[in-house]
Amino acid sequence: MRNLKLLKSLCNAELFHSAGSPRCVAVRSDTDSLLLASEFSIIEFDPRTGQVVNDVSLTEKGYMPDDGSGTLVGIQELAELESVCVATSTGDVILYNLTTNEVECVGSVESGLTSMSWSPDEELVALTTGQQTVIMMTKDFEPITEVGIHQDDFGEGKFITVGWGKKETQFHGSEGKQAAQKKMLEVQPAVSWDDRRPRVSWRGDGQLFAVSAVCPQTGARRVRVWSREGVLQATSETLNGLEQALCWRPSGSLIACTQRHPNKHSVVFMEKNGLLHGDFTLPCSRDQAKVKELLWNSDSTVLLVWLEDMNPGADGHISTHLQLWTVGNYHWYMKQSLTFGRDPQRAPACVLWDPQRPLRLHVVTHGWASLTYDWGWSTDRSAGLDASDNANVAVIDGDKILVTTFRQGVVPPPMCSYDLQLTSPVNLVTFLCQTQKTNQLAALTADGQISVFVLGRSLSSPSKGDIGVQFPSPPGLVSVDMGLVDPLYVLALSVAGLPETPLPIRQLLWLKEDLLLGLSSGMLPSSSTLLFLSPAPHPDAQNTLSNRREVAVEGVVTSMAYSFNSRTVALQLEDGQTRKLIWDSDTPSVGDWTDSSGCLINFPVPCVQMALCTVSGEELLLGLTDRSHLYAGDTQLASNVSSFVVYDDFLLVTTHAHTCRCLHLGTLTVKGLQEALGSDGGQNDETLRRVERGSKIVTVVTQDTRLILQMPRGNLETIHHRALVLAQLRKQLDFLRFREAFECMRKLRINLNFIYDHNPKVFLENVETFITQLNSINHINLFLTELREEDTTATMYPRPLNVPVPSPMTRAKKLDVVCDALRHTMESMDPDKYCLSILTSHVKKTVPELEIALQKVHDLRAKPPDAAGAVGAEEALKYLLFLVNVNDLYDHSLGTYDFDLVLMVAEKSQKDPKEYLPFLNKLKTLEPNYQRYTIDKHLKRYSKALHHLSKCGEEHFSEALGLVREQKLFSEALELYPAHSPQYKALSCAYAEHLVAQQQPEQAGLLLWRCGEPGRALQAFVSASSWRHALCVAQQVPLPPDQLSLLARDMAEKLIEQRRYAEGALLLDQYAKDCEEAISALIKGAVWEEALRLAYRHNRQDIIETDLKPALLEAFTSHTAFLENNTALFGRHRNRLSVVLELKEKARLDMLDEDGPDCPDAELYSEASSVMSNSKYSHSNSRISSRSSKNRRKAERKKWSLKEGSPLEDIALLHALADIIGTVDKIREELHSLLKALVLFQYDRQAQKLQLAYEEALLMMEAAIPEVWQECALQSQTPITGPDSTANSIMASLQNQHRPTALPLPDAEMPTVPKMRSGVKWKLTILK
């Protein structure tokens, strides 16, 4: 739905005079100058400066006759040779060198030449001769082949007949059976004005070319397709009325020709096999105009049709037109029509599309005037900000304007909501830039008139609408019946003082109802003029717009943009510079565009689309280049944007990555826009959504969420972008428009939790407003049933950046808070009306209150409501069955112990009465407490069942005890019986048995002791090695002294086995009265000071000499050996770790040098823990199957393998070093006690040696900790520099600094840095 907008036009009117008239034109690629050839000379002309660069005569060299009778048949610039090739009708092929200005005839054909056409790659040239042959030559003018144009053979692509019968027996479709008897029409010769010259056109890839020539036998034109080797491929079918124009679409799909039918004039398309494939009708009758040429632009998007009137006017001259056609959704639109009038000197002599800029058109007139038109694509849309704007999009189609109002509906092109018929082809369309009136549009037509269309009001009658300054009154005003709700009025206005040139006004802005801003060329080629057009003030100048004032602009203005908010008009010059127009003052002026600091802001490159927006409180210009670069002033935001539009506070863009982004300008800076457009977006990023490939934005429906996209083929798609939807919802919820928000969320499938999550405090304060606005039981129930505990503003719909997060109301469950708030409000408003919603609020709570809901249903049955339309018990129960599973509801009704309610639920369910009636009848015969016990046990509510069973008397205690043991309800059962009752004692014993089975004998002993079972308690304490409790119970029993001594000795043995030497020695000393065994246990446990105390207490100093001193020396020897072994092992592991890390780094650098930093394997080497070049293992422990516990234990043992070359050797070494440090650091207290004992017995030398060895070990390990762990942690993050590094390794190292270090395996965890207990004092100062 795009139109062609004229960005700039360059006119050099008769700046030079040359003999003859221009015959052919080419564009010099390196300088953009025009190469013109006439009957007398070749001229190089620069249209930007209007100067002739080169002029070489062809008559002086004798290549052309002096009388001007010669004819040129083709011209081509050869960039590689820096030359121009020209062919004459006399048969000469002339090469003009642009550097040396030398002219050379490189070949000649005696029969003359009728055309010359070079292949797009300039490797081949096809020449047609006067003898109706085609000569193929190389770029060095070496002949390849010469074949006749007219051949009887169809070509290599001849169709194959499969023998399905004759034409008379075949199906003819809508033509009917008469088509079988239709006789072949006679072949009609070509039209009289046909120049009879062959036309040659190449396909874009240079593999094929087509030749249109008049057949000598029939006199009609036929098209033949040839390969670049000169082999005929296909011949077109005979078409009556086929004309001379021929042009092959550069994309290679179609060959364009023109055909004159009995009742119409068409442009027809052929495939490469010569068969027709589509057409479109020209807006002229059969004998009204003739088509001189057809020209495709270089990207195959625009087809130019060059027309001349057949019938001259009163002055004997004919008019010439250039029409630009585009296709969309299989419909051809005439986007522009340039009328050159009847002056022969202004008529085009040569027309050419620029080969490098697809939308630049060069026209050279017979009067040697040069016209250059630069076109651009634009979507003409209304840009209102309120709901009165219909989201209009106007599409130009010849003398019609196709208007689609997207607010009312999406009408796929080429259809539209309504079309506006004008009397002349339309060149420009603009909508009124005024609030509440943006549906009005104005159109500039090819005859220079501006037509104004107003929907729903009269332009002259104030009673039908306030227009401000009134346009001229009727008879210019005409009402048009478009079948719309509102009438449509049109007024045609002529503009006084415009020059008689095609498109004198190239752009229009309708700023106010009485003011149009026009853009035209200035007095100089490098200037522009802004025209302020208003209704003529004189009564005799009706239906006329006068130029109120003009503003000259230095530079060529290519585009204009208007902002509704700031009423700013921005201008862009052809070099990307931007200007600001002050238009609403008495003296309009143009100034530079500056930012808040006064610095000039310009686009770095010219932009084809421009819009104004506000970012961070500052007005910015957004521009999109033809290279898909999006700029905000001089800052590039993105480089893959295919289209964009500014809507309210949002920037919407589509990208070549097939995504659509919607960014909120109010919360972002320019840098934030860059980052947002450059990011890939997260999982719940509301600003990003995928779209169909090639989608482009058409318009946005204001005050709505609809975004209209157009696909490359032309069809439309409507999407509701999540960012637009959420922004509208947030606005509606902020203004408490709950009904609108709810309907939008239902339609667009937005989670209804968002209504509460957006601002919980506001919602809870306005619950009554929410219920009143919804005013629908179904909608309230839908809201309640969709409630979840999840905060959707933190997961599904994250809040935009820089938006404050409302503080949470309470720590209570969200479901409970919302359900309670709604229920309380509905109960206070009308409990009968909102009965179903109240039931829903009970059911949807975190713990469903089904019993309360059922009780309310039961109350409805007991007391039916009197209000009209109130819900009855039957309907309420049926609704509950819809919300809750019938079996669950039956169980909960049974749990209320109300059999009437149970029967009511059962009757509404699918249950068979034979299933529940016998059970209910049996329950009714039971005692109430036992009845409730039976129900609770059936519902597996065992705690409640035990509670009711405990009230049934002693005769049911055995059943209660069995229930307690079966369901392990010991704690609950003990609370139900008195502490000194026999039931309590039985429960305690049962509980103790359970605890013993659970390997908790000490707690079992406590229960048995307090309930009066000391014998069993003693056994439990002994098995638990709880010797203090055991001795207390033994004293309570009481045990005889000999049994007590034996008990103490047995328990001491257990304690010694458990390495509890001090406690075992205490029992042996105080209860078994065996001091020698006690001292021996203390010596064995290295409790030196306590052993020494007992020896002196019992006067057994002999044990010191016999046992204590030898044990001290033995402990010295073992500790010394322990320190030596661990120190040596620590050193070996540390050295090996250095080697492993060095090999790993070397392997990583080798890979980087081999494949570069972007190699996927480089990531592995930079992040792996240990990858050895000499590793013998090719598997990872993470792949070991864990199907059994045996395999898991095996894998755990193998995980940290210290074997050299193992995959995780460095991690294993770190774990081993950490274990050694922990083990050595743990013996500080033990070593301190040993040193004191050695000093006491004058073993100073041994004590000094041991202290020195331990100190050295601690110092070595303390020094190694920061070195080892820092080297491992920072290895992959330190930049690799030095003589052995490469550019790739340095780059990868620097990139790794910004990337978190990851290990290759999930179980490869780096051990934490060990911490040594330096605060524990262990040294003796008396030892040196």
User: Spans with pLDDT under 50 lasting ≥5 residues?
Assistant: 457-486, 1155-1187, 1276-1286, 1292-1308
Structural class: alpha+beta
Beta-strand residue percentage: 25-35%
Average pLDDT rating: 83
User: What is the terminal separation in angstroms?
Assistant: 97 Å
Overall body shape? elongated
- Radius of gyration based on Cα positions: 49 Å
The portion of residues assigned to helices is 25-40%
Total of helices: 34
Largest sheet: 9 strands, mixed
Question: What's the total number of strands?
Answer: 56
Describe this structure in words.
The chain is α+β, with helices and mostly antiparallel strands. Helices cover 32% and strands 26% of the residues. Strands 33, 34, 35, 36, 37, 38, 39, 40 and 41 form a 9-stranded mixed β-sheet that branches. Strands 1-28-27-26 form a 4-stranded antiparallel β-sheet, with no helix packed on it. Helix 25 (1061-1070) packs antiparallel against helix 26 and helix 32 runs antiparallel to helix 33 (1244-1274).
